[in-house]
Design a protein that fits this description.
2 domains, Rossmann fold, six-stranded parallel sheet, 10 helices, Pantoate--beta-alanine Ligase, Chain: A,domain 2
């Protein structure tokens, strides 16, 4: 595994690899890696000749009262974890390398995707995500991009970005990786104390129970959503949102349809956690 900090150097190296007809799989991350990230790397390695993973804590996707300065930066631990899998190039650019002083261009995302769900509570977040992903894709120019389904809204925004800007990359959204007890793996799980960690299980339990009830048609969409939110509110400190939406457009649903996405964001203690499930009827 070679670590590279210069965007220009990485572009030059990968340009030579592509001339040799090598395919490139790319996994963008903000570090603080866990088994969920490693599952993306394994998929990239299976499907490509070259695997690139980036670690870049992107300042433009954090709001003024969010945890940018406190976000875990553990490069040494990340590198040790990556030894378990095959990564050819570890890309770790500095903030000035990605956002020079004269940086003046951002990627805007339509309100229907960027100002709902997480975006409703994090103004500008998805513009920051779209901008940095566009820059990283221009640098790496991968054959395939690997994203985790846990960040469902983010994956939806990036899929639209790739489609709308005619980018020549295939987006692969891989299943959420969970702990044995069902908690979705997240870099923010490390913020939870033991009691909060126990209560955090309410997210996955609520989502899975709602899916079971919907598949068995045990109630209307509205009634089941209300019942689920009430149960969730008893376990967590705050339910920021709990929505049942169209999986492609993120538009809220009023009645059951063949495929649906259920997404939630909750605070357990001071830690904000997100999770989701997809519901598909045969």
């Amino acid at each position: 595994m070679k670590m590279i900090r210069s965007p220009q150097r990485l572009q030059k190296i990968l340009g030579k690899e592509r001339l040799r007809k090598k395919t490139v799989g790319f996994v963008p991350t903000m570090g603080a890696l866990h088994e969920g990230h490693l599952s993306l790397v394994k998929a990239a390695d299976r499907e490509n000749d070259i695997t690139v993973l980036s670690i870049f804590v992107n300042p433009s996707q954090f709001g003024p009262n969010e945890d940018f300065s406190k976000y875990p930066r553990v490069l040494g631990a990340d590198k040790r974890l990556l030894r378990k899998v095959k990564v050819d190039y570890l890309f770790c650019p500095s903030v000035p390398a990605i956002y020079p002083k004269d940086h003046a261009t951002c990627v805007a995302v339509g309100a229907e995707l960027a100002e709902v769900l997480c975006g409703k509570f994090r103004p500008g977040h998805f513009q920051g995500v779209a901008t940095v992903v566009a820059k990283l894709l221009n640098i790496v120019a991968p054959s395939r991009l690997y994203l985790g389904a846990k960040d469902y809204q983010q994956a939806t925004v990036i899929r639209r970005l790739v489609n709308d800007l005619n980018m020549n990359v295939r987006v692969r959204v891989m299943p959420t990786v969970r702990e044995k007890d069902g908690l979705a793996m997240s870099s923010r799980n490390r913020y939870l104390n033991p009691e909060e960690r126990r209560r955090a299980l309410a997210l996955s339990h609520a989502l899975f129970e709602l899916r079971r009830c919907l598949l068995k048609k045990k109630g209307t969409l509205a009634s089941l959503r209300t019942q689920t939110v009430r149960k969730l509110e008893k376990a967590v400190d705050r339910v920021q949102y709990f929505e049942i939406v169209d999986p492609a457009t993120l538009a809220p649903l009023k009645k059951i349809q063949r495929k649906m996405a259920v997404l939630t964001a909750c605070f357990v203690g001071k830690t904000r956690l997100i999770d989701n499930v997809i519901i598909s009827f045969p």
